[in-house]
Design brief:
Elements (H helix, E strand, L loop, with lengths): L1 E5 L1 H7 L3 E4 L4 H11 L8 E2 L2 E2 L3 E5 L3 E3 L11 E6 L5
C-alpha cells in the first residue's frame, strides 16, 4: 500500500489528510487518488499528473514529476503546493 499525504489546499479540497492506495508508480498513485477524490481535479490533479504549482515528494527523499517513477511498497508520497503559503 502507498500512503498519500495531502497538504495545504489539497487537504482542504479532499477533506482528508491522507489516503492509502495500491500503486506501482507515481502515475498509478495519482490516478487512484483522482478516483477517490475527484474534487481535486483540476486544481491539484490533472490527467497524467499534478496541476502546475503542485509537487510530489516520494519518501521524503526527492521531489518527482515523472508518472513512471516506481514506488516501493509501504512508500509515502507527499502532495505539496509549490507556492508560498499553499
Amino acid at each position: 500500500m502507498i500512503r498519500i499525504e495531502l497538504y495545504e489546499g489539497a487537504r482542504q479540497l479532499a477533506g482528508v489528510a491522507s489516503v492509502e492506495v495500491e500503486a506501482a508508480t507515481l502515475g498509478d498513485a495519482l490516478d487512484a487518488l483522482r478516483r477517490l477524490h475527484p474534487e481535486l481535479e483540476p486544481r491539484v490533479l490533472l490527467p497524467g499528473g499534478l496541476a502546475p504549482h503542485w509537487r510530489a515528494n516520494v519518501g521524503g527523499r526527492a521531489f518527482v514529476d515523472d508518472p513512471a517513477t516506481p514506488l516501493d511498497s509501504d512508500e509515502t508520497v507527499l502532495i505539496i503546493s509549490a507556492l508560498a503559503g499553499g
